[in-house]
TrEMBL record, chains A, B:
Binding residue positions for substrate: 137
EC number of this enzyme: 5.4.99.12
Entry's family note: Belongs to the tRNA pseudouridine synthase TruA family.
Record has Electron transport as a keyword: no
Protein's organism: Kozakia baliensis
GO terms, biological process: tRNA pseudouridine synthesis
Protein name per UniProt: tRNA pseudouridine synthase A
Complex formation: Homodimer.
Enzyme category, top tier: isomerase
Record keywords: Isomerase, tRNA processing
Catalysed transformations (reactions): uridine(38/39/40) in tRNA = pseudouridine(38/39/40) in tRNA
Annotated active site: 76
Length: 277, 277
């Protein structure tokens, strides 16, 4: 592991205890949420975050005590999740079982578009972020002349017909361990632009084109930037080979635009052992 | 054809001309709409209908002239469509091509959740309702403990685990030509309770259970009533065989509850020749 990554991990770990504080018990939660109208996962002053909604619901569940949480992935404003994994440390005298946690939190999260799919007592040392070994996202494009109706806020609308096979040929150049500087947001805080993309699959199903991406971790905006460039290949503005050149350039200005957030959904977080098994 | 059906067809045909009036040209439209918050397809005094939204958009398109439309299926309040077929008669001096009609109507339908997927000049004598030879609907159940989030307003939430195979065994008793009085709304205006159900397929895909139904035509609430009874079979409260007995009883009180509208979506209307080919 490069030393910069090690130091970053140490710094991050120092800010979140690997084990819950005295008197607290850690729970693993699987969340579904609709990011529309939120500022994303992380608490911010300028709007409603999923984290704030969850922590407020948890505080209600335990009688007003402040509760802190951490996530496997900090999604951006407008990005969705069908299976985000989060940890939350609750007073261990709460005497609640996993089902009560799941249903109680989901109840207190109403009427917001956030709910708990699963809850489980976390194994010793388990951390939602640092124990995770993979993240998978799906980016969905609605590819037709007419604007989205049934899928509004959940797809990127692209009018120009897309060739999904050409997009897959381009995507194949990006799979593997690379310097992804060309697909990294200027605001990205990661110490290294190196990432290993384990999967980048493009498929067409009727009027939908989906891009599924899986990696241990992603750079800020990486998938939306990949989607923005893949769309240029699909519409014939770029050849598939151009993605190889853009990647090699290590220059964000060489790549395509950032695709909008509403097409993106976190669909899976992987751990060495399923925390909900 | 039973004489009652013939007389009903004559009556209905008399109220809508088979051909557009002098100076008008008929267009076939394929619509996608989200029925949430509407009173359904048909114009009513107590709320917003898809028909009113479409006719108002069309009037804007042709400079204020009143426009009338007819549909292949009058969906209820809260029911959706991904491919409803509708006809609309526009002044034939409008000099518009199909693409202008599609995009112009979709534009004037904003910000409502209704848009035109396809438009085509109708063949002589073609009628959206009377020329149709089949309607297909999908009913979607979200089958999990947690309330819907990403699918809110588009699924029926059923907490109790459902056995889709048992539901299919029950559904098989209902396929074919039967008196469907047990699955017919009290307000149904059809002259005959006889219908031929060509397809009733139940499938599970992860946390979703879908019921696809296809017939030349359906009775009022027929699919929602079928879904309500199939759910009782899936949850083990009824045996699959009970559906055979309920059907034979020809008595609405013998069947299960009416499933809620939000799970229902019209997905296809069939014609001898595809009006959009």
């Amino acid at each position: 592991m490069p030393s910069c990554v090690v130091s970053r991990l140490r710094k991050a770990r120092a800010s979140v205890a690997d084990n819950p504080a005295e008197g607290l018990k850690r729970w693993a939660l699987k969340l579904e949420y609709d990011g529309t109208g939120t500022v994303g996962w992380q608490r911010q002053h300028n709007g409603l975050s999923i984290q704030e909604l969850l922590e407020k619901a948890a505080a209600k569940l335990v009688g007003g005590q402040a509760v802190s949480s951490a996530t496997a992935g900090r999604t951006d404003a407008g990005v969705h999740a069908s299976a985000m994994v989060v940890q939350i440390d609750l007073p261990d005298n709460a005497m609640r079982d996993a089902r009560q946690i799941r249903d109680g939190l989901s109840y207190h999260l109403k009427p917001h578009r956030v709910a708990i799919l699963e809850a489980a007592a976390a194994a010793p040392g388990w951390h939602a972020r640092f124990s995770a070994i993979s993240r998978a996202y799906r980016y969905t494009i609605l590819n037709r002349p007419t604007r989205p109706v049934l899928d509004i806020d959940h797809v990127w609308h692209v009018r120009r017909p897309l060739d999904a096979e050409a997009m897959q040929r381009g995507a194949n150049y990006l799979v593997g361990r690379h310097d992804f500087s060309s697909f990294r947001a200027a605001a990205c805080q990661a110490n290294s632009p190196l990432r290993t993309l384990d999967k980048l699959e493009v498929r067409r199903a009727g009027q939908y084109v989906t891009i599924e991406a899986k990696a241990r971790s992603f750079l800020h905006h990486q998938i939306r930037n990949l989607a923005g460039s893949l769309q240029l290949v699909g519409s014939g503005q770029w050849t598939p080979e151009r993605l190889r050149d853009v990647l090699a350039a290590c220059d964000r200005r060489q790549a395509g635009p950032t695709a909008p957030p509403e097409g993106l959904c976190l669909i899976e977080v992987g751990y060495p052992e399923d925390p909900f098994a």
